[in-house]
Each structure stands twice: as structure tokens, then as C-alpha cells.
Amino acid sequence: MEHLVFTLVTFVLFTALVGIISGKIVKNSDDQKTAKGYFLAGNGLGGFFIAGSMLLTNLSAENLVGLSGQSYAANMSGMAWEATAVIATIIMAFVFLPMYLRKGYTTLPEFMEERYGVGVRRMVSILFLIGYLVIGIPVCLYAGAIAFEQIFDFATVLVGIIGALYAVLGGMRAVAVSDTINGILLVVGSVLVVVFGFIAVGKLSGGGFIVGVKDVITFEPAKLNAIGGKNDPVPFACIFTGMLLANLFYWGTNQVLIQRALGAENLKEGQKGVLLSGFLKMMVPVLLVIPGVIAARLVPGLTSKDFAYPSLVARSLPWPVVGLFCAALFGSIISTYNSFLNAASTVFMIDIYKPIFNPNLSEEATVKLAKKIGWGFAAFAIIFTPFLDV
Questions:
Q1: What is the CA 151 to chain-centroid distance, rounded?
Q2: What is the enclosing helix (H) or strand (E) of 342?
Q3: Burial class (CB in 10 A: 0-12, 13-18, 19+), 241
Q4: Which of 13-22, 95-104, 247-256 shows the lowest mean pLDDT across its residues?
Q5: What is the dihedral of CA 198, 202, 208, 209, to 10 degrees?
Q6: CA angle, 234 then 237 then 242, to 5°
Q7: Residue 159 contacts residue 144 (beta carbons within 8 Å)
Q8: pLDDT tens readout for residues 25-80
Q9: Among 40, 180, 197, 295, which residue carries the largest CB count within 10 Å?
Q10: What does the angle CA 193 – CA 195 – CA 198 come to, to the nearest 5 degrees?
């Protein structure tokens, strides 16, 4: 009971600390007064914050749960997503981003209108909204619920409310700043999960870290295979076809990811942020895929592969560290959630409501309405998410 109380206290304190620091950083900004300020942080984001926000938006609970679950049940072929993502970030930095910033786009559908007409812009906007509200946001909340269920009980509705506070009240700058702070801790915490996971395996044979590494390597070598067959999570041939295209969409044209790059203070900072996020992606197989292999040795026979990562955390991390890691995991869930929420309200206001229903809407009125829409989207996601558990 003492350990649980300590975990909960450290979790709450660090989560609150991130909110306080983020609030102080964005307190004196003008982000709440104009549409560009609210949706794109006033085009004032530096490369460090762009990279931190892009990475943490990507490294959310569905990645932690999904990739580690794949390696737990099959092998490491799922790391192909990360390898092709690096290629996609390079193309984004040097091909797409210069064009986006030169044209001054706020949303990707604006680009679609210039290339293919207003009809395509409306269609893409609607598809984005449906995807965000019915798939992206609920899946993020659902995966977060799975992760926390295995560590300690947690309410999905609380995740939804706190995430909405960042996205709705603080705008893009608050999202980027909080993402970066949480991202640093998540990377550190993820490294500790791997280290202590190997140590826990080593203890099974009366050893430590080195013994654990050798044990995992020799216990079931097939799990270390990264070249997937036709029945594996990622068949090898898929890397050169659909996967590369999917990553090009995700890193180069998905509003959720590119919105912080569109808010760069200049092209140099934007490219720096995108490329740095690609560089950090090369760490992801170590942070997300290997834990599933460790869990297969340490906690075999789980009822669901999706429990692999949270079970490893609960089994291997020392109890004084669990609260801080949970705060970082919570931050990653919030990051993806509030990024989806911010992107959804941006697309709705800039590409649908304002050009169709009220072209003369003032900057201040646009921001106020965007906040109301954001709260509405958050409420819908919180209500819809439990229906995924069927």
C-alpha cells in the first residue's frame, strides 16, 4: 500500500509539474488572440520543440502496446515501421516542408485545394475528421486504458479531460512544449524499462544485466528475427511497397504530425526539427520492440499480447521509478490525444466551417469557436472510446 501511494503521489506531482512549466512558458504569448497563433503557435516553434512534439505524438500508448505486443507474440519484424519512417522524415524535410512553408499553409487540405480544387479540399477535410474522431483519438485513449490497467487503475475520462486542457486552452504552443518535456522523460523511462527488464530476466538465473541479455538472446532466437515472413506482423516485401507509402503519408501529409512543422519559425528550424525526430526514431526499436522480446521471457503466457509492455513495466521497474514512468506514459498518451484534438479542430475551422459558413469570421471569434469545437470533439471521443472494447 505504501508503494502504491508513493507511485500515485509521484505520478500526480510530475504530471502537475509538466502542466505548470508548460503554462509558464506559454503564459505571455499571443497564441490565444489569432488563428495563426492558436493553431500554429504564431509560427514561432524552434527545431527542438518541433522534434519533441513530433516524436512524442508518434510514441504514444498504441505504439508502446502495439509494437511490443507484436514482438511478444511473433518477432521483431514490426521495427520495419521505424526504419521506413526515417526515410519518410528525410523526404518531408527536404521535399514537402519547403513547399508548405513557402505557401504559408495552416492545413494540408489547403495544399490539396491549390493542386486539385476546392472539392478535393472538402473531401480530404471530411476524411481527416472522420479518421481522427472515429479512429485516431478513440484508439489512443483505448490503448492508454490498456496500458494503465496493468499498472494501476486509471480512468479514461481523466485522460480525455486533461489532454483537452492542453489542446483546447493552450493551443499548439502548449501542446509542443508539454510534448517535449514529457518526451525527454519517456525516452529515459523507456531505456530504464529495457535495462531493468534484462536485469529481471538475469535474476531468474541468479545473474544480472549481462546474464539477462544472454538469456533473452538464447532462449528463443526466432523472436530476434526482423525479416518477417508472410505470416508475421510485417512481411519483408511490404517494406518496399505499402509501408513506405503509409509512412510518407503519416510523416509528410498527416495534419496531426505536420502541424507543428507548419508552425516553425523558419525553414531551417522546421527541417532541423523534422530531421531530429527522424534520428530519434532510430532508437524506437530498442525502446518499443525489444521490450516485447524481454516480456516473452519474463512474463510468458499473458492472456493478450497487448499486456506485454505494461506487464513488463509492473514486473521489472523498481517501485520508486514506476510513478515517474507512469507520468511519462500518461504524457505520451496525452500528446497523441491532444495532437489529434488540435488537428481536428484546426481542420474543422480552417477547411470546413470558416470558408463555407462564415468567411468573415474574425480572428478572435475563430479562436473562441475553435475552443468550443475542441471541447465537443473531446466529449465525443470520451463517450465513443468504450465501444472499442467489444
A1: 20
A2: helix 319-347
A3: exposed
A4: 13-22
A5: -20
A6: 75
A7: yes
A8: 666 665 566 777 778 877 888 898 898 888 877 877 667 778 888 899 888 998 88
A9: 295
A10: 100
With contact defined as beta carbons under 8 Å apart, do 238 and 80 qualify? yes
Joined together, the cell numbers standing for residue 219 give 532462449
Look up residue 272 and give its amino acid. K
In the numeric block, which cell numbers belong to residue 41? Answer: 503557435
162: buried, middle or exposed (CB in 10 Å: 19+, 13-18, 0-12)?
middle
Distance between CA atoms of residues 100 and 263, nearest Å: 10
Which cell is 330 given? 500518461
Total number of residues shown for the chain: 390
Long-range CB contacts (< 8 A, 24+ apart) of 225-228?
Answer: 225/75, 225/76, 225/77, 226/75, 226/76, 226/77, 226/79, 226/80, 227/77, 228/74, 228/75, 228/77, 228/80
